[in-house]
Design goal:
Layout (H helix, E strand, L loop, with lengths): L6 E10 L2 H18 L5 E7 L4 H7 L7 H5 L4 E6 L7 H15 L4 E7 L17 E7 L3 E9 L11 E6 L2 H16 L5 E6 L7 H13 L6 E6 H10 L6 E4 L1 H15 L6 E5 L7 E5 L16 H13 L3 H16 L13 H10 L4
Parallel strand pairs: 1-2, 1-3, 3-12, 5-10, 8-9, 8-10
Antiparallel strand pairs: 4-5, 4-11, 6-7, 11-12
This protein binds nicotinamide-adenine-dinucleotide (NAD).
């Protein structure tokens, strides 16, 4: 560790539902071990919030009414996953995660797709090809803008009617596309792949394409391509070595990043950062996966996605060495075969977390 002055970071922990509790606990243990190792140059102060589906059961709300007010002065939010059988999914997601992402203008969702040693990918190419790309997801508008309506009357033969509109603003497109170009400039392969479905969706996604072409002119050093989302799904599987930064709208990037983490071996591996790049509000760090009700409470979920998200949080704090320390410990733990069962092992969540902590000081 190279840190010399004492720095304190206040983090709001929101485990929420299901395996969210287990993976947030694992990530906290890792960060506390990093702080303990720092010879008091670093301190993480945690405050845990009980929000989620159980809180809804008791209060009729997914989070406190003044929840954003309570969160706004934290340095970051560390989130588990939301969703449980007692609350319809659209209510739990909108009532907590989307309220935070949209309320705090966390417009850039960064989702690295990392292929780890010791983990078998379903992708044959992963055996002998260096694969490493990042999905950059527009995180505040697009298909998740919440625009639409249901149950319009008067159309007898059609039964109920619902509309769900996507919202694309020029500012929203430009800032996420520019973010992708800036990120590409920091990577070995300087390339941005823009993903839309502008052949079928001729308004919002054509605006996105136009903005992409305009912004690209300012980055002549960065390779570009525009790919339709269906073709990009195929490319993830067939030519993933051509990818570096993939930028897409809210829904398309959500789907593509799940495909990416499945190709890397498991949904449980994927980390993510919901960033407010201007730092006017706290950013939120969470694994890509959901609350995994099928395995929740059994102590067997994979904590790597959540721990990788904690590393992204440290990057955001400017603690680059400490973030790298966590990444290396993840790689060593996987390479040594300490794996949960979603990636072919028999280790528990606790075993993986303990092994990883033991490698922080390697
Ligand atoms: N960011 C979020 O909070 C978020 C994201 C996706 C889904 N959800 C919610 O989660 C609930 C369940 O959704 P789902 O089943 O579609 O998705 P999911 O990600 O919870 O689970 C999909 C599959 O992946 C496995 N999985 C997920 N995380 C894992 C981990 N850490 N270790 C090992 N295996 C893991 C599960 O066991 C399951 O088989 C729903 O209520 C949904 O709305 C929330």
């Amino acid at each position: 560790m190279t840190q010399s002055t004492s720095r304190v970071f206040r983090i709001a922990a929101i485990p929420a539902d299901g395996v969210g509790h287990e993976v947030v606990a694992a990530g906290r243990q890792v960060l506390d071990a990093i702080a303990a190792d720092s010879r008091q140059s670093l301190e993480f102060q945690w405050q845990e919030f009980p929000w989620g589906s159980e809180y809804y059961e008791q209060t009729g709300r997914m989070m406190a009414e003044d929840g954003l007010e309570q969160l706004k002065d934290f340095d970051a939010i560390y989130f588990g996953a939301v969703g449980w059988a007692n609350v319809p999914d659209h209510i739990s997601l909108w009532g907590l995660r989307l309220t935070i992402c949209q309320g705090f203008d966390q417009w850039a969702n960064v989702r690295p797709v990392s292929f780890l040693p010791g983990i078998v990918s379903p992708l044959r190419k992963a055996d002998d090809t260096d694969l490493d790309w990042v999905v950059v997801r527009e995180n505040t508008e697009g298909e998740y803008a919440g625009f639409g309506g249901r149950n319009f009357g008067g159309r007898v033969d059609l039964g109920e009617i619902a509309t769900q509109s996507a919202v694309f603003t020029e500012v929203g497109c430009e800032r996420i596309i520019r973010f992708a170009f800036e990120l590409a400039r920091t990577r070995t392969r300087k390339k941005v792949s823009s993903v839309t479905k502008s052949n079928a969706q001729q308004y919002g996604m054509v605006l996105w394409d136009d903005v992409f072409k305009r912004v690209a002119q300012e980055y002549p050093d960065v390779e570009i391509e525009s790919v339709l989302v269906d073709a990009m799904a195929a490319k993830f599987v067939l030519r993933p070595e051509e990818l570096s930064v993939v930028v897409a709208s809210n829904l398309n990037a959500d789907i593509l990043s799940d495909l990416g983490s499945a190709l890397a071996g498991s949904l449980g591996l994927a980390a993510s950062a919901n960033l407010n790049p201007e730092r006017r509000f706290p950013s939120m760090f969470e694994p890509v996966h959901g609350s995994a009700p099928d395995i929740a409470g059994q102590g067997i979920c994979n904590p790597v996605g959540a721990i990788g998200s904690a590393a992204l949080m440290l990057e955001h704090f400017g603690l680059h060495d400490e973030a790298k320390t966590i990444q290396r410990a993840i790689e060593t733990t996987c390479a040594q075969g300490v794996l949960t069962r979603d990636v072919g092992g028999t280790a528990s969540t606790e075993d993986v977390t303990a092994a990883l902590i033991s490698h922080l000081s390697d």
